Amino acid sequence: MEKRYRALVSQYKNQVYSLARYMLTDANDTEDISQEVYIKLWKHLENVSDTQALAWLLKVTRNACLDRIRARRNEESVNDELLGEHEKSNPEKLIGDAQIQQRLMSCIAVLPEPGRSLLILRDIHEHSYETLAQILDLSASQVKVYLYRARLALSEAFKSRISAEKIEDPL
Amino acid sequence: MSDNIYNENEALKALHKLDVQRMPDELEARLLAVPERYPKKRKPWLGVAVSGLVAASVLLVFSHFPGREGVAPPQQYSQQEIDNARKELALAFHYLSDASQQTGRTLNNRLSESSSAALFKAAGYPLKGSEEKNGQHEYQ
Known about the structure:
The structure holds 2 protein chains of 2 kinds.
Chain A lengths: L1 H23 L2 H17 L9 H23 L2 H12 L6 H14 L5 H10 L4 H8 L3 H29 L3
Helix pairs in contact in A: 1-2, 1-3, 2-3, 3-7, 5-8, 6-8, 7-8
Chain B lengths: L7 H10 L7 H8 L1 H4 L6 H21 L2 H5 L7 H45 L17
């Protein structure tokens, strides 16, 4: 059983970590969630088949992240926190693609669900529509509709973000 | 490049450039140590239940196959024993046949008597010995 657990850690560790990282953006929270998810896997390993393992892990990760985001909202505004986090973690001015990617991550993190999860799982992790439908308990057509809306929302959010930065810092 | 990002397609292109984030080695080591940190406790009642089931199945098997005799071929009888059994069986059938003939005869007699009595009674000629005594019929 331990062998199987270790194999599942090696196989899907980055998928779990990356989903949590893009959803939460905070490195400490991401580590907490990853650990929480794998402890849960260890406790329920008998009930998770190898074929279901990836979908199960991503579903549990997503739910844990949503719980964490809700808990954060009770304390303070998510947007303020996320922007603050990026300022703290990146004190030096980023340039080029790295800068764009950092801003993009901030925008993804504030998208509404299920668009945010779909965008991460499809456009970054490149999972199939079937896997997405399984993880989010949606039909394939719902997945496509939500994904389309999420992409539009991301473009809009990004445009607004850049515009706001230009106004603040015209140089 | 920042200016180009105003274009929606550029934003989506940038999105596709984002990679799957790699889990830090330190965290992976912590995750691999989870089985040691959270050992699975065996449920004590499960052991008791399993041993009970095993004991019950063993008892069941032995009750159906008691020792070597249970699975041994059936006992062979001598010719004399077979002849005796045959005679006893014939005698038993003889008694049975006698008893059935006697019962049949008795029933037949009673039926014929009762039907004659009923006919004579209906015709107004009561048969001797078939009168009602104290309100009870003789045949009853």
